[in-house]
Protein 1
Amino acid sequence: MFNYTNVFAFLNYTKSIDNIRTRSVFQDGSVIRSSTPFNSGFEDESFTASGRFQRRFGKLQGSVRGSFAYTKFNQLINDIVSVNENYNQTYTASIRSNFLEAPNFEVSYRYSIQDSDQGSTRTKFYTNAPTIEFDALIFKKLTFRTDYTYSNLRNEDETINSFDLWNVSLAYRKTNDSKWEYELKATNLLDTATRNQTNNGTFSVSTSEYFIQPRFLTLRVIYNL
C-alpha cells in the first residue's frame, strides 16, 4: 500500500497426465450414450491469472480488476480424441464513495467473454453488466437503499437475453440504540420474468433460462436483543 493504492496479482499454472477421464460412446443419431472411466495419457492444462488496482481519492475509491482462465482437457468420444479448450475473461471497473453522513453510492461495470472450443464446434458469449447502488441516512432515522443492475448476454451474431433488476428498501429506526427497526422492502420492481446464463459442459455449451421471483413487497419488523 502506498499513496492509498492497493495492487494485487495472482498467477497459477498446472499440468497433469494420467488423469481419470471418460470414454463416451453415443448411439447413432441419438443423445443416448454409455460412458466408462479410463486413465488418460494425454496432458491436461489450466492457467489462471487475476489482478486488481485500487486507489483512494479522498472519500472516493476507484477499482479496476480483471481475471483470465484457460483450461484444456482431453476426452474420448466414439473412440476419437476430443480436445476441449475454454477461455474465460472478466473485467470490472468501479467507483464508490465512503462518506460518514452524506449519501453513498457505488457504480460498476462488468464485461466478460466466454470462449469455448470443443473441436467440432466453437462458441463465444459476451456479457455487459453495469450496476449502481445508492444509500442515504435521512433525518438520522430513515435509511434508504436502492440498487439497479442491467445485464446483456449475446453471442457473435445476436443478443440472446437482456434484463434489468431494481430493488428498493426504506428502514426506520428511532435511535441508534433502539431495539426495534421497521423496514419496507420492494424487490424486482420492474417485474423482470427471466434471466439467461451460459454453461460449459463436457460435451456441449448451453444457455439456461432461469425464472425470477416476480415483483414482491414486504414489511419487516426487526427486534435486536
Note: Residues 5-223 form one domain.
Protein 2
Amino acid sequence: FCPRGSPTPPRGGATGAWVLQTLDAGDAVIDEALVQTPSLRPDMLQSAEVRLLSRRAGDVTTALVCFTASNPVPGDGGMVRLTFPEEFSLVVPAADGLASGVGGM
C-alpha cells in the first residue's frame, strides 16, 4: 500500500529510521522492521536575484540579495551564504543590512 499525502521534514538531509509493523486486531505486533529513508534533497531557491546598487567598475557598492525558499531558514543559527565571484574584492564581507522575512534574523 502507498499512503498519500505524507509530509516530509522541512529541511534536506538524512532522516531517521521508520518503524513498519503489522498488527493484529488488539494492536499486538506480528512483524516489524526498521526502514531507512533516503536523504532528502534541498529544494531550489525561487526568484533568486543578486543586484548591485552600482554597476560601475571599481565602485564600492551594496549587493541586494532576494529569493524565495520553499524550506524555512532556521531562526536559531540558520544562515544564508552568498559566494561572490573571484573578481570581486569584498571590503566588509558581513551582512549589516535588513534580513526581511527570515525568522530569528
Note: The chain has no helices and four strands.
